[in-house]
Amino acid sequence: MKQFILTAAAFLCMAGPTANADDGTDWPDIPLLSITTEDGAFPTCEIVYPPEGCVGTGIEAEYVKGRLVMTLRKDTLYDSGEYVKDESGMRVKIRGNSTGASEGQKPYKIKLSKKFDMLCRGDEDYKEKDWNLLKISTWNPGFDGAESNFLTALGFIVSKAVGMEWTPGYKFVNLVMNDKYMGMYYLTDAVGRGDKRVDIKKSGYLIENDAYWWKEDAYFKTGKQAVMFGYTFKYPDSDDVDEPTTLNIQNYLNEFEELLSDENGDVAEYIDLPMFARWIIAHDVLNSADEAGTNMYVYKNDFDEADPTSSKLKMGPLWDFDSAFKNPDDAGKWSKLHESSYFYYAELFKHEDFRKAYTDAWAEIKPGLLDNVKAGFNELKNAYGPSIDESMELHKTAYPAECQRSLQAQADELTAKISERISDIDMLTGQYVTGIGGIETASGKAQVVRIFDIYGTECSTKDIESLPKGVYIKLYGDGTAKKVLKRQ
Fold this sequence. Notes:
Helices cover 27% and strands 24% of the residues. By secondary structure, it is an alpha+beta fold. Strands 1-4-6-7-8-12-11 form a 7-stranded mixed beta barrel. The chain has a 5-stranded antiparallel beta sheet with strand order 14-15-13-16-17. A 4-stranded mixed beta sheet has the order 18-21-20-19. A hairpin with a 2-residue loop joins strand 11 (170-177) and strand 12. Helix 3 runs antiparallel to helix 5 (273-286), helix 3 (151-162) crosses helix 7 and helix 7 (352-384) runs antiparallel to helix 9.
């Protein structure tokens, strides 16, 4: 592998106009995307700053037209052809806000003129026009070397493990643009409406609680929404949004928010409690540190004006995992989004029916969670073999400070963090168990006759000190019971 990297690096430095799939280079065994733009222009962006009272450094970016060819082992998987509007070719621009504005490797959005499944899954329904190229490196002080290359992969593994209705697909790719090597990327589905994406009817909605609403042409605000946020549209397209379309969903959310502010309000009339619970469980598992992060998508399958609550509001796909495990001091605590005042969860957890939805979902998710994470990383290793590590070595020729540790080393670190979070969440969810007396941190009561975990499974010992940290239910000889918090 070392000889391959040295050869490839030297070639990229001197080859100039022939760094592409046909140049004879022995590329790593993952797809190679070769983009050639009109006049050799590279996408650029302008940094924009929020108006007073708003937050976030954003970007404004324009598409560049061109051609995309995707190859693997010298075989052509896709060729968009030269750009002809609505007929062939593609357009590419810098995407993201803080990530697009930052130095170094840029993330991109690709828009094909004709639909195609860039992930080659063998099903016509996967064909779409919009695709993302996400940076491979995430700066994060919570990890060895203050970097992770597989947080996005872990986020999608966790998304599937908690049972989200749709998880974006992805592949690792290398990118060459205008004969310049641009690094290793995640090529992913884009968040949007589609038969194999967020599968909603034409009357439905896919919207985002968005800190960058001030950049968008179509948006709305609700009565109790945090002042720095607005709702923006992923579907319908902003060009198709009119006043009645906006008022329908705006009024629906306002009615839900009124019920939410009343601890006895029937919020289940408006939202899908289990799906809201699974979304926040994922962030609790990942210990997300950004309480005001964007990418909080919600969707509604359809909207029947005669019966608006005939379909419930659901949490949309999980996206953007940059803040996972970011603050080591947050170990043993809820994720920031769990208690954030910038979205609905702090109020939702005041409702007994939502607390039950959370504990019920966690009881279902927990037993297989760690095995699902291990299996997810094993699938990556089996699917790509050494080509991921080879590509990371190649990536370092463009970005020497990135991709410093192997897939195996990072998978081990991420798996260990998930294992710790499972214990943390077991402990934290004890406060939501109902029907048992208040929590204690020491016994001092009658003799303990049985101990159960919070899901009702009897423990094999009556010695609380021999059990791992978490919340347990002690049954005493006098017939009383107490929740017990074991911190270590």
